[in-house]
Structure formats: C-alpha cells, structure tokens
Design brief:
This protein is α/β, with parallel strands linked by helices. It has six helices and eleven strands. It has a seven-stranded mixed beta sheet with strand order 5-4-1-6-10-7-11, sandwiched between helices. The termini are far apart. Bound molecules: cytidine-5'-monophosphate (C5P). Cytidine-5'-monophosphate binds next to α2. Pfam families: IspD. It is an enzyme of class 2 (transferase).
C-alpha cells in the first residue's frame, strides 16, 4: 500500500506579515523544510504545493497551489496515485513521528483519520468582548494536521464539496459531511499552527529544544 505525503504550502501568510508563510524560517530552517523533513522517512513520496510551483525543498516534488487551501489540496490529490495520502500543513513544522504512525494506522482501519487535541480551556461564545453563553468543553476536540485518508475517499469528498460550494478549513470535515467515519487520533501540543507573530516567537523557542 503506497503512501504519499501532501503538503499545502501555498498560503500568502497575511496574518504573519512576512511573505509566503511556508518560507518563513525558525531556527534557521523554513517551516516547509521542517515539515518535509519530518514526513520524508514515513512515506513513498512527498508532494508540496507552493504559490508559484517552484522552490521544492529537498526530497519533495512541487506543484502550483490554488486560491484557497481546499483548491490547493485538491490539486495535490490529483498529483499522486498513492493508495493513501497524508495531508499536512506546512504551517505546523513540529511533527513527532509517533503522530505520523498513529494517524496512518487510523486511516488504514477506517479510511480517514485526523490528529486532534481534547480542548483544555473553558469555552464561551462572546460578542463585542462581552461574555455570552458558556459552551461545555466535554467531548470537544481541536483539530490539527496531519490527516490521513484512502486517496479515493478524500478525492470523492473534495469533488462533492466543490460541486456543492462547501468550503472547509481542513479535509477530514469534508469526509465527515459524507457521513463516513473519521477516526480521532490524540495529537500533540507542539503541532500548533504558526499563524500570528506570537506563534512565531513560540516556534523559535521550541526549535532550540527540537533541534538539540
Ligand atoms: O492560512 P492557514 O494557516 O489556515 O493555512 C493552512 C495551510 O494551508 C498552510 O500551510 C498554507 O500554506 C496552506 N494554504 C495553501 N493554499 C492556499 C491557502 C493556504 O496551500 N491558497
């Protein structure tokens, strides 16, 4: 059973304000290079999507991304024939091996699996900085990547979403909306997504321990 890692890295990084986010460096390496390095040893091939289809990191094939994350992932899905795909955001550069193993094992059993973390904070719905309704955190998970799928299943889910004009921020939710099971696999706090300047400061600090 062949496995391809697909890495959407075509975002513009607007909230970070440092150009295309995947090419921002932490601890002297780009976020994309870190993600590819963590994936390479676990899969048969790595395909990345960058804004202009150039700048492939070592050990990866590169294609041009789309206007949204969802379009980028659909392009990546069409760029491989692997039986299983592991989709991982370049913006999550610290990827432990244990997580890759667990999420792939989940997909082999159920067809679809995602890494997620049980929510630890108190949750409230707010408007205009006013405390509204308390939301119970019982049973709530925060969804991360990597996510792993049988390729034909996730392609079917993407095609359905495009036909029905449904846009999501991840891929597992496209499978779930077809009423197909998605396995939740315990994630890791180090898999946080680098989105804001303060995330970047956290990533710089973590890189020191990660690279030691
Ligand atoms: O913007 P956000 O942080 O949610 O992006 C998540 C991931 O999707 C990032 O790795 C980003 O590079 C990627 N992306 C993409 N193509 C887009 C938009 C985002 O590959 N058009």
């Amino acid at each position: 059973m062949s496995v391809a890692a697909l890495v959407p890295a075509a975002g513009s990084g607007t909230r970070l304000g440092k150009g295309p986010k995947a090419f921002v460096t932490v601890g002297g390496k780009t976020l994309l290079a870190r993600a590819v390095e963590a994936l390479r040893g676990h899969v048969d091939e790595v395909v990345v999507a960058t804004p202009d289809g150039s700048d492939a990191p070592r050990g990866a094939r590169v294609i041009r991304g789309g206007g949204t994350r969802q379009e980028t992932v659909e392009r990546l899905l069409r760029a491989t024939n692997a039986d299983f795909v592991l989709i991982h955001d370049a913006a999550r550069p610290f990827l432990p091996s244990r997580v890759v193993h667990d999420v792939l094992a989940g997909a082999r059993v159920q067809g679809a699996a995602t890494v997620a973390l049980p929510v630890a904070d108190t949750l409230v719905r707010g408007a205009d900085n006013a405390w509204g309704e308390l939301v119970s955190r019982a049973g709530l998970w925060a969804v991360q990547t990597p996510q792993a799928f049988r390729r034909t299943l996730i392609l079917e889910a993407h095609e359905a979403a495009r036909r029905e004009d449904f846009e999501a921020t991840d891929d597992a939710s496209l499978v779930a909306r077809l009423d197909r099971p998605v396995r939740l696999v315990e994630g890791d706090a180090r898999l946080f997504k680098v989105t804001t300047p303060s995330d970047l400061a956290l990533a710089e600090a973590l890189a020191v321990a990660w690279d030691a």
